[in-house]
What does this fold into?
Amino acid sequence: MASGLRAVTRDQLAGAAREALGGGRELAGVERLAGGSKKGVYRLVMDDATTAIAYLWDDAENYWPAKEGDDDLADPFSPGLGLDLFEAAHTRLDGLGVRVPALRLVDRDGAHHPADLAIVEDIPGENLEQLLARDPSAAAPVMARLAESLAAMRQYRAPAYGKVAVVDGGGTSHGTSCEGVVLGHALRDLAEAASRDPRVASARDRLDERLRVLAAAIRPREEFVVVHGELGPDHVQVDAAGRPVVIDIEGLMYLDVEWEHVFLRIRLHDAYEPLAVADLDEDRLALYMLAQRLSLTAGPLRLLDGPFPDREFMAGIAEHNLNEALALA
It folds into this structure.
């Protein structure tokens, strides 16, 4: 768990930047970017104004308090941390034609920095969330292209559910079904949220019963697609050609398509419509909506146990989703 920001200096990344970007360039500056809670994200600025982004997977960059099972990759919903998960996700999405930042350098051996390090293409400018807020009409073609990316992800068929790195590596995940794994996590999130907020505690039995009823209604399925898992508009950059560029991909999974669309609905609200698709399973949507509301309550409350800096913002996320979860009970 991070105890505060640890300064990453220009000297620490100079060699990696030279190897990644070459051409006689030298690293002139390092700028830490806001938003990362599990890894350090830094913009590298070379002496000719060329830029790139460095990702550092380092315990000192992770604001989340550790809990049992964090390192269990057989759990599809364990934290998406590390270079191996990033590389597997990058390979899968790139192979499907989904735009991701180009990979410039990978260092897992400590050649340039003690932590796992990747340097990727910088996509400067607005993300989709900012573009939607500023000019919804200008965002329309970006949303249309994002819908195409989501279609490519949905068309892929995986042999099993779980993290892309695990399944593609021949591994197996816990549980016997996506909905079973989701139910287990939702019950744990419910218990955690109830221990932190009396309103959830008073509704715990009602929420527990609702989760179990929703899960029992789901019919078995053996069809698993590519799911980002946290595809909010802040995880979509917009490049100079107006194409959506998907970032924060370490949590990429093979799972039910409904999981993705519940998250998109939560994050996009009325702007979700261009991404809507037919033939989603209403029973899965209902379970996954309540599960995600509980996750978005328990997770932010847990994050606030640590030194996460934007505390008011995170507390607001917890409060909003707590009320939404109670309304679904």
